[in-house]
Design brief:
127 residues; two-stranded antiparallel ribbon; mainly beta; six-stranded antiparallel beta barrel
Amino acid sequence: MSAATNLTGTYYISSNAGTYLTFTDTNSGTNLTTFQYSGAPEQQWELAPGTGSGVSSPFYIKNVKYQTYVSYNATNNPDNFVGQSSSPLNWFVNISNVSQSPSQYIFAPDPSFASTWSDDFLTTTIP
């Protein structure tokens, strides 16, 4: 794995299962879900530089339609659900398979990548 750089932009994010990340409403704490591709704004994600720097610089991930952020809270979250919040969270992004097109990425709430976003590697495609 290597750190992903220059990812600022708007993307659709899909899983290896062929479904796309989606927020379904504006309620803070709502779980991130996946649905078949629709091209709708609730499936579009803005990646912007987060705060901090280092070997793996963080990104904020914001939903285009709802203007809320992908978030993770380890407290009282035994199932490790990723949800949404009005406050941004730093996400660290590594490229997991550079030889595949489109590239595969993995997301984690900390630079150690001890805990990652999903069992499926995620791919990003520009809308």
